What we know:
alpha+beta, 14% strand, three-stranded antiparallel beta sheet, 5 strands, disordered C terminus, two-stranded antiparallel sheet, single chain
Amino acid sequence: MTDPSNVEREAIALHEAHHAVAATEMGLTVRFIDISGFRLGAAEFVAGVGIVAPTTEPEGVSVLPMAVAIIAPSLTVTEHEEVNRYARLEREAGLVLAGKHGFQADEVIEEAEYVVWKEWAAITALANRLVREGRIDYAPVCAEAGA
């Protein structure tokens, strides 16, 4: 994999930092954040955040926290249109997921807006760290959490 341009790398870092900080703020566990490219099985990813969702709801996923973490990057426009377009696609997917579980779009968006506003300094600090380091691994989670 080749390194993306600085503008693209910074946009991807900001995007993934939104996911990670929102997930953490919503009580989810973040295992890693990577903007340097990685593989999971046969799939290859440019970037991503490894989130462990608690299995406390009937379908096994805590939907509102996941939906907030999914749509958070769509609330900030970057200098890279492809990253912005991807964030808009994720927003739609997150709102569909939430809607299928009885959450209103306005409720999810409002919660995500609050998290991004409240945690903006943490989001930008994490994005800057990601630009420098490429990947951040967090302490392993216990086996009961699905790790």
